[in-house]
Amino acid sequence: GYGEEFIKAALGIDVGEVETMAHYKAAHFFQPEVDFILDIGGQDMKSMKIEDGVINSIHLNEACSSGTGSFLETFAHSLDMSVEEFLNKGLLAENPVDLGSRCTVFMNSKVRQAQKEGATVGDIAAGLSYSVIRNAIEKVIKLKDPKDLGENIVVQGGTFYGDAILRAFELLSERQVVRPDIPGLMGALGAALIAKERQQEGMESNIIRPDRLGDFSYETRTANCGRCGNNCLLSINLFSDGERYMTGNRCEKAAGIKRSGEDVPNLYEYKYHRTFDYVPLPEDEAIRGTVGIPRVLNMYENYPFWHTFFTELGFRVELSTESTREVYERGISSIPSETACYPAKISHGHIMDLIEKDVNFIFYPSIFYEHREDDGADNHLNCPVVIGYSEVIKHNVDEVMDEDLLFLNPFVSFDDRRGLFNRLRDELEGFEIPNREMRRAVNSAWDELMAYREDIRREGERILHTMEERGIRGIVLAGRPYHIDPAINHGIPELIKSLGMAVLTEDSVAHLANLERPLRVLDQWTYHSRLYRAAFFTATRENLELIQLNSFGCGLDAVTTDQVEEILNDHGKIYTVLKIDEISNLGAAKIRLRSLEAALRERVKDRVKIEGSYKPVKKVPFTKEMKKDHTILVPQMAPIHFEILGEALNSCGYNLEFLPAADPKAIDEGLKYVNNDACYPSIITIGQYIVALKSGKYDLDNVSLLMSQTGGVCRASNYVGFIRRALESAGFKDIPVIAVSTQGIESNPGFTYTLEMARKGIMSVLYGDLIMRLLYRVRPYEKICGSANLLAEHWIKRCKESVIIGDRKEYIENVQQMVKDFDELEIDEDLIKPRVGIVGEILVKYHPMANNNLVGILESEGAEAVVPDLTDFLMYSSYNATYKYEKLSKGLLPKIGSDIAIRYIEYYRKPVREELRESDRFYEPLTVEQLVEEAERLVSIGNQYGEGWLLTAEMLELIQDDAENIVLVQPFACLPNHITGKGVIKAIRNLYSQANIVAIDYDPGASEVNQLNRIKLMLSAAHDNVKGRQEKAKYRKNKLLKAHNGKS
């Protein structure tokens, strides 16, 4: 356990063993055929699968103690009850409260709300019991099918003293289990069994003698280590016999491990120095002055290029200091999004470090495309945070806005050397650098970057050779480039090294892999593509294991962790993932590493041979023959639009069925079959499919699923991979998935795009936009209750009939009449309500189930909801190709195609614009060019992920249309939203002091009470502003009236 090393040192204990092995030994004692163990203790939760008497996989809870014993104890004590009493009340409860499973903070709110609604203590206890087990099943075990648990299950840990916990597990897992009568003492029993196993005749224990216990004492002192830049604060325990034991943060001493493996190779250390140990020019040789470069995110990938480039141009390169906790704290006040990953958040401190060094030129580029390393990969992008975090810095670190500081963050691509030269020439135009000099600098820097990457590969091969020679085992510690930062990895490489295992990076071995394709995922991100290749290489080597580092809040790892685990498991390897953030306690990481080491040791002892091979994904195509008989299921997103769109597409020869707008079961099914770090929209989308397929409504031999695929930076492009994984887990692996994309990422012979489909589809979306715009504008003011909805329903029916033919003349007539009808609907013209815009992630913005009926909430609270058009997202997606052509070295043909698409859509949107412009009540939407102009006031058009720059543009448009109150809706920890959503709120408020913006996270476990309270707080200010404007208007009117009367 966590105190093992301390007690061992203090009392002279002979043998220490990692707790997972002790728990396994105890479970085996009670059930010799045990093949699955679930242990829920006071602070953590772990599960183990056993095959042939050897631990095959180990999972521990990652982020916090939500769903463990301490969590239940807190609730029990708040009611003045023991845990046992509390849980016994839950055992016989008739109406367990659904409390979700995400976070204790959210559950506190839900419990209070349940109490207000009359829930009994038993109902709450039962609800919490279910939450604990759901947390274990969905987030730790990640169970898809109860059969995967095995046949002989042992549950243990103090939490299982509660019968309600045991019963909840049996009900949710659909299994009967063994619970020993000492569940809270199983670790101690396992330790006793291990002591018995390892005792040899004649051995004498070193444990402290009873006669010395009376004199035993210890004291604790603190001191700073001082052996490296981290300067860790250590706790030094001094025992009465002269021995001492140290704990702290990052090094092996801090983790409580005696130094060992001093000469074991550590490529993390080598790579860190190879990346940053460049010597800057002396100041007297720096003819162009100093450029500051922050030691952050993409610099761990490309710093060798930038140092060489600027040095060649005659700049002295000032690199920010090494990362420490103090650096992080220096920038913490300017972090706009707490759910961003730690590597992003620490960037603020690095910028402050450069500013405090009086650097007046900071260069922090946004790298959209990396250099293509693998021709078999689908793309070579960076993640949204790595690309765009410099935008967050620009708008949230006040000092960056100082007029004496030049802060450049150009969007550039490493995809093409010539294009890179052109971009840098343009961005550094103010320095008047000759082209020949600029070209020479780019070429030198490019060569150095390639040499650097080759050095990393060579060092990896050297370490592999050393491992073979010395017969030692190695760990590929696979993460992102920035995980080599000791402050980010918290000394995990040194911890591995102290266990006598060599440490390699993913990019040091990825080039040695013979990757089998296709993968289940869309292989689109450069850093992650290395993970897959490194996993393949590791899987084929007896002396290598892989541990994946995952920063808390990294949404993309919902994609990568599943794929890496799949690769390793198919080869019979153990998969381990370590989730890390700004908290540097290594206790949980140490347990996982030692558990892995113990499992490997058992495998060697039992001579277990690693066998298996990766099973490439077989994608079931949608054939021409299927078009006739198959029902194609489409997930719901925008109910008004999709009701009309369904008619349009079905008139083109398909049988599409859009799934219901509201189905609470969808979320439960989604949680069961999707990685729980995936975003909320993916959980809802996949849940909708699974509910439909399980309903019995469809012939499973004649049904297909359709999903759009943008091919962009956001993880939404990987929903298709999520869907296929879920279908396989749910027993529907033979159902075709039609991936629809403009790039033709996948082909399906039976599903083709036609001009007719485009015409009718565009009409449908424009009809949906118009009805939504008109309805939301008049409904809050209607004099006859329900009249607006009746008119909307009338027009939805008319539009559905219209798109079957798709005649443009009829379309124009309908648009004209529709605007006229809503313009003439009887409303209270004197009533003034605050206008509240809704922006954010596309599904959460439009789907009432995803946003908890936000439009209804706003209207019930006396506001008018304003939702931007879905057409704007289509225009945004099309316009992006123009920027990529002009700035990121991409081809002309996609730009031409996108220009045509924009003109075609605008051709059908023009009648809508004209009617809205002439109307009395409604606002005309901006063109895409106008939206670009608005966005560029704050962000680059290079922000092309999720809703990207459009999100910023929409907020600015809303404010100018008198909707200065905005609800920014987003899935929990949405990556694009960190940049162009939350990341620009401060900048928008600087432009418009009246901006009243609230960001709301949506998630399966989020508290609706918390969401509602925050929305009401925003609305309170909105109503006050309306009242203030009314009083000012009244005052001005009276003043004018008095002035007029005075003249008379």
Walkthrough of the structure:
By secondary structure, the chain is an alpha/beta fold. The radius of gyration is 31 Å and the shape is globular. The N and C termini lie far apart (91 Å). 52% of the residues are buried.
Quick recap of the structure?
With 1048 residues, the protein is of the alpha/beta class. It is built from 39 helices and 25 strands.
Within the largest sheet, what's the order of strands?
3-2-1-4
Alpha-beta content class: alpha/beta
* Unreliable residue stretches: 254-259
Main sheet attributes: strand count, strand direction, barrel closure: 4 strands, mixed
Helical element count? 39
CATH class of the largest domain: Alpha Beta
Name of the CATH superfamily of the largest domain: ATPase, nucleotide binding domain
Globular, elongated, flat, extended or rod-shaped: what is the shape? Answer: globular
Give the helix level as a range of percent: 40-55%
Tally of discrete structural domains: 6
Indicate the topology.
Elements lengths: L3 H8 L7 H12 L5 E5 L4 E7 L2 E7 L8 H10 L4 H9 L12 H13 L4 H21 L11 E4 L6 H11 L12 H13 L11 H4 L4 E7 L8 E7 L4 E4 L19 H10 L13 E4 L5 H14 L3 E4 L5 H7 L10 H4 L1 H10 L4 E3 L2 E4 L14 H13 L9 E3 L2 E3 L3 H11 L7 H36 L3 E5 L7 H4 L2 H7 L3 E4 L20 H14 L4 E8 L5 H14 L5 E5 L6 H19 L20 H4 L1 E4 L4 H12 L5 E3 L6 H9 L6 H15 L8 E6 L10 H12 L6 E4 L14 H24 L8 H19 L2 H17 L10 E6 L1 H5 L7 H7 L3 E3 L4 H17 L4 H27 L9 H8 L12 H13 L4 E7 L3 H6 L4 H7 L4 E7 L5 H40 L1
Parallel strand pairs: 1-4, 8-9, 10-12, 11-13, 14-15, 14-16, 16-17, 18-19, 18-20, 20-21, 22-23, 22-24, 24-25
Antiparallel strand pairs: 1-2, 2-3, 5-6, 6-7
Helix pairs in contact: 2-8, 3-4, 4-6, 4-7, 6-7, 10-17, 11-17, 12-14, 16-17, 20-21, 24-28, 24-29, 25-26, 26-27, 28-29, 28-30, 28-34, 29-30, 30-34, 33-34, 35-36
